[in-house]
Amino acid sequence: MPFIQNDLELHLVIMEELLEAGYIGGFSISNTKTGRYFSSNWFDTIKITMAGIQYLQDNSKMKQMYNMAKEVRDWIPGM
Q: How many contiguous H segments (helices) and E segments (strands) does the chain have?
């Protein structure tokens, strides 16, 4: 795991690991000379895969977090 300097870098590492594990898809993370970045429209294109759904069903704590994230998303207009 790379050295994590801030919350954004932690988020990138977590998302990259989920992507590599096949739990999510629909976006990419680019490594450039100036840093690491999500693809420009990642929030609109991110998808959970069948493996990700199965993992959530099998892991109750993750399922609770998923349901909470869905609720938060429903609260925020335009999401």
A: 4, 4
Interatomic CA distance for residues 73 and 67, integer angstroms: 10
Q: What share of the chain is helix, strand, coil (3-state, %, to 5)?
A: 55, 15, 30
pTM: 0.60
CB 29 within 8 A of CB 15: yes
Instruction: Give residue-wise pLDDT tens across range 61-78.
Output: 777 778 888 888 787 766
Q: How far apart are the first and last CA of the chain?
A: 31
Strand (E) or helix (H) holding 58: helix 50-58
